[in-house]
Write the structure tokens for this entry.
Amino acid sequence: MLRVSIEHYENFPVASWLCPPALRPAVVAIYHFARCADDLADEGDDSPEQRLAALRAYRADLHAVAAAKAPSPRWLRPVFAALGPVIARHRLPLPLLEALLDAFEQDLVKSRYADRAELLDYCRRSADPVGRLLLHLYGIQDADSLRRSDAICSSLQLINFWQDFSRDLPRGRVYAPAGDLARHGLSAEDLLAGRDSPAARALIRELCDWARALMLEGAPLVHRIPGRAGWELRLVVQGGLRILEKIRRMDHASLIHRPRITALDLPFLLLGSLRMRAAEGQA
């Protein structure tokens, strides 16, 4: 997702100055919950079995604070001390927080995806809960808004995949679906070996087109989020589209070059945000 902090969990729009002040503590608490779980799944030298055990313990503490009980003292960060009151105050749906943990656990046991439907099912746990949690804080629960939020969040997750080949492949994770690989005459091993080729670039171009279509499907949601939060969502959408544009400009060579958002992109993000229109599919 759009990186707005030195410290990041890539699927979370970290609370910036645009976030409504009354909601900022809740957004930050959820962010740190996701960030710490992300670290448990990816950082350090623990084995997959040890990571899974840590995530199970983390889930147990989530259940504890949701029941107004004290968490264990094993975590260095006071994640649950902040999250517990937020869950109670805002009546956060626990299944959405658990879904994020499901995704982190899935990354430790699954590294290949057969088709786009299977990958979107992963996004349903790894990304879509973030948007739904934020909509819950904003008091927006209608079905169409939830659908558009899912489209934006899934798109952001996919964009992160196509941006982060150089980070995911060394971990053995191939998020490009096997069906798409086969259609271009490629295999997972070709990507794991970092073999840049016309076929690989054609694959990435097609995957980026898919992510862009999803983003445009969800983009009208920005006009339903009131005030500053709506403008923050505009910047998040534009950040995702900007990464796709950078991948296009490098001729879809993100297998070997990683695009990123810098301060120089801010004018483009602001201009794109101002130009967003309420019509369907306009971003």
In short: Confidence is low (pLDDT under 50) at residues 1-9, 11-15. The radius of gyration is 19 Å.
